[in-house]
């Protein structure tokens, strides 16, 4: 699939304020700074579509982008930001959990994981929450350009091994770099295929 057209639609604080749920939708979630907004820019080929930052906590709301006038990409604020206060974490949980559960057109949640790190509690907890709520998800390992090939393979093998201690099968996985554009065609192909089921 080729993205010919992508535009920002709205930032919402609440699922009820989001656009009408009449087209397929894909959300990007993960720890602060993992590269959610950068991945949206990489996929759409528009460097400034979603706002990115070197400092964690840049994305704060539920941001809808309309792609090819026929489906949505959604940029979400990250979790696991060490400096976030308890009330900020609670607000995040309320806004995001409600959005993920209530959004009927959400076909897949992409959980982004920094390929450089071992499994982190906040990601593991979040994946477990998705499982409990039976929400469809795929894992995206980001920032692969920051590792040597052999180290990347090792980290991914370790992650898979860890996931298999809790899950009977592995989810769909993607490996990306916003720098080298690795993983773009694989993710777009997956979305194209998934769009056809709605
Ligand atoms: P929040 O909105 O704060 O939750 O962060 P985010 O997950 O949207 O991360 P963002 O896309 O803003 O990227 C955070 C930082 O990581 C920026 O400095 C990006 O340039 C950098 N970054 C993102 N993806 C990649 C990647 O694939 N490779 C490299 N080398 N850097 C990346
Ligand atoms: Mg962001």
Task: Describe what is shown at a glance.
33% of the residues lie in helices and 21% in strands.
Layout of SSEs?
Elements: E1 6-12, E2 25-30, H1 36-44, E3 62-67, E4 71-75, H2 86-102, E5 106-114, H3 121-132, E6 137-142, H4 149-163, E7 173-175, H5 184-195
Parallel strand pairs: 2-4, 2-5, 5-6, 6-7
Antiparallel strand pairs: 1-3, 3-4
The structure holds guanosine-5'-triphosphate and magnesium ion.
Magnesium ion binds at residues 36-37, 58-59, 75.
Report on this model:
This protein has 198 residues and is of the alpha/beta class. It has one domain (6-195): 3-Layer(aba) Sandwich (Rossmann fold). It has helices spanning 36-44, 86-102, 121-132, 149-163, 184-195; strands at residues 6-12, 25-30, 62-67, 71-75, 106-114, 137-142, 173-175. Strands 1-3-4-2-5-6-7 form a seven-stranded mixed β-sheet, sandwiched between helices. The radius of gyration is 16 Å and the shape is globular. The structure holds guanosine-5'-triphosphate (GTP) and magnesium ion. Guanosine-5'-triphosphate binds next to helix 1.
């Amino acid at each position: 699939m080729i993205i010919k057209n992508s535009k920002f639609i709205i930032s919402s604080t609440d699922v009820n304020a989001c656009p009408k749920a009449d087209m397929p939708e894909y959300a990007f979630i993960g720890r602060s700074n993992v590269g959610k907004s950068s991945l949206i820019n990489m996929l759409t080929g528009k460097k400034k579509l979603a706002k990115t930052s070197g400092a964690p906590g840049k994305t704060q709301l539920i941001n809808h982008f309309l792609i090819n006038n026929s489906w949505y990409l959604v940029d979400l604020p990250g979790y696991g930001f060490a400096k976030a206060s308890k009330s900020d974490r609670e607000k995040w949980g309320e806004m995001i959990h409600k959005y993920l559960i209530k959004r009927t057109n959400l076909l897949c949640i992409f959980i982004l994981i920094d390929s450089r790190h071992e499994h982190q509690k906040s990601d593991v907890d979040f994946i477990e929450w998705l499982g409990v709520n039976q929400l469809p998800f795929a894992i995206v390992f980001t920032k692969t350009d920051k590792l040597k090939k052999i180290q990347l393979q090792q980290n991914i093998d370790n992650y898979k091994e860890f996931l298999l201690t809790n899950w009977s099968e592995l989810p769909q996985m993607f490996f990306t770099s916003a720098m080298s554009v690795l993983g773009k065609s694989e993710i777009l192909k997956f979305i194209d295929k998934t769009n056809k089921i709605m």
